[in-house]
Amino acid sequence: MAFLVGGANSAAADTGYDIDNSLRFNDDDSPDLGITLGTPSTANVFTFSFWFKLGDWEESKVPFSAGTDSNNFDQIVLQNDGTIIYHQKSGGSNTSYIQPSALYRDPSAWYHLVVGVDTTQSTDTNRIKMYVNGSQISSFDTETYCDQNEAAEFNTAVSHTVGTQAKGDTHADYMDGYLADFYFIDGTQYAASDFGETDEDSGIWKPKEAKDDLTFGDNGFFLEFKGTGASQDSSGIGADTSGEDNHLAVTNLAATDQTTDTPTNNFATMNPLDAGSEATLSEGNCKYTGGTTVGQSQLQMCGGTFGVSNGKWYFEVKRISNNAFVGIYAADHGAVNIGYTNAFQSGWNGYSHGIYTSDGNARNGNADTAYGSAIDDDDIIGVALDLDNGAIYYSDNGTFMDSGDPTSGASKTGAASNFTTTVETWILGFISDGSSGGASVYEFNFGNPPFTISSGNADANGYGNFEYAVPSGYYAPCTKNLAKYGG
C-alpha cells in the first residue's frame, strides 16, 4: 500500500506560495503541448523545472522533449521501473545519457525535477545537473556527458513538446499523470533552490514563487495551466505566463484536464499499485476499467491512495458500465490482498455499496443489507464517510438513500452502516469488479473529476469540484483538509 510520503505532499508545510492548477495527461488520448522555438538568447545553456505526479506506472513516459527526427532529439524520460533518464542524441549517437540510481515511483506523491544544462562548462559533471525534491543527484547507474560546447536540440529552433517525445512530426511515449509549474529557461543554468525551498519546520521541499526572480530569455516559457482553451494564445491550456508570449499549441487536451491536484494541495486518486491483474487505471488514476474474464467468484479489486483516521469525507463515483461495489476499506486488512481476488471473506473490514441495475444494497464486510435502489449507467454515487460518529452514507445523483442524512451526526439516521471497530486507518476509494462478460468502468472524483461537471460544488473550504453539493461538515480528500481534519 502506497501512502503519502514526505516532500511536497503534506499541507503540514506552510507553503506561502500555492500552485493553483496542474494539467492531467492521459496517454491513451495522445495529448501534448507543442511549440517550435526560435533563436535562443544563449545557445546550449538552459534549465527546465517541473513537478510531476505519476499515472500509469507500467509505461515509460516523456514529459518534455525536443527534436528534429529519430536521430536528433533530447528528452527527459520517466521510466516504467521508476528511474529518470536525461537523454541527448545527435547524428544517431547518444551524446548525453544520465540515469540516476534512485527510484521515483510512488503514485500518490508529487516530485520536483530540475535539469540545468550548460555545455560550455569545462568540467563534464557541471554540464548537466539534475535535482529531485531539492537535492542534487550524485549517484548514477549511467553517467555519460556530452563534449564541451556540444550542440543540443533543447533551446534551438526545433519542435519542443510537453507531454510526449518529439522527433519532428513523430510523437510517442505520451505522458500519463500530472504536471505543474512547468518552467523552461533560455540562457541560464539554474539550481533547484531557484524554484523551491525546504520548509524550516517540517523539512519538506516545497515550491516558491520564482517567476519574478528568473530571467527567461527569448525562448523561455512558464506554464501554470490557468487557461482552459484549445487555442495557442494567452487563454489556452498551454498559455505562457512568463511574459515572453511563447504559448504552446494544444493537442488532445480539454478543460476537464485542468485540475487542482497540485504539489501544494495533493488529492487522492486510485492506486495502480493496488489494482487487480486485469484492471487498468487511466485519466490520472481516476478512471477504473475492470477485466472481462473474471466473474462473481473472482472479484478484481482496486484501492485508493489516501488513508484517514478521523473526520468527515466525501467523494463521488460515476458508473459508466456494469456492476461493482464502491466504498472504503481498512488499511490493515490482514490476509486479504487488495488488487487480487475474493476479498469479501470472513473478517474483511470494508464498507461498500453494490452498484446494480436490479436493486441496491450495502455491504459490511461480506454481508449484504438492502439499501437504496437500482443504479443506472451514468449515475453518480456519493460516498459520505463520518469517522467522528462511525457511519457511512451513499447517495444516488445527489439524493441520499433510505432517507439518510449525513449531517445528522451521532443519530446516524439512514446510515448504510454503523460501525465501531479497532480500525485505525480507512482507505478512501475502493472498487470491486462485480461483473462477468463485460468490463466494469467507473470514474472516481475525489475533487478533480475525469468527467464534465454540469454544476460545480466545492466543500466548505473551497476545495474540490463535485457534481452534487458536499454535505455540511464533510470535506474533499486533499492534503490541506487532511492536515486540518483527519490525519
Keywords:
487 residues, mainly beta, Jelly Rolls, 2 domains, eight-stranded antiparallel sheet, 35 strands, elongated
Describe the protein's architecture and organization:
- The protein contains 1 helix and 35 strands.
- It folds into 2 domains: 238 residues, Jelly Rolls; 217 residues, Jelly Rolls (Sandwich), CATH 2.60.120.
- The strands form 6 sheets. Strands 1, 3, 8, 9, 10, 15, 18 and 20 form an 8-stranded antiparallel beta sheet that branches. Strands 11-7-6-5-4-12-2-19 form an 8-stranded antiparallel beta sheet, with no helix packed on it.
- 53% of the residues are buried.
- The chain is mostly beta strands and 487 residues long.
CATH architectural arrangement of the largest domain: Sandwich
Counting helices, strands and paired strands, the structural category is: mainly beta
Low-pLDDT residue spans: 1-8
Q: Which CATH class of the largest domain is shown?
A: Mainly Beta
Determine the strand fraction and express it as a percent band: 35-45%
Tally of domains: 2
- Discrete helix count: 1
- CATH fold group of the largest domain: Jelly Rolls
Largest sheet: 8 strands, antiparallel
**How far is the first residue's CA from the last residue's CA?**
17 Å
Mean pLDDT: 90
**Rg (C-alpha, Å):** 23 Å
Helix content: under 10%
Shape: elongated
How many extended strands?
35
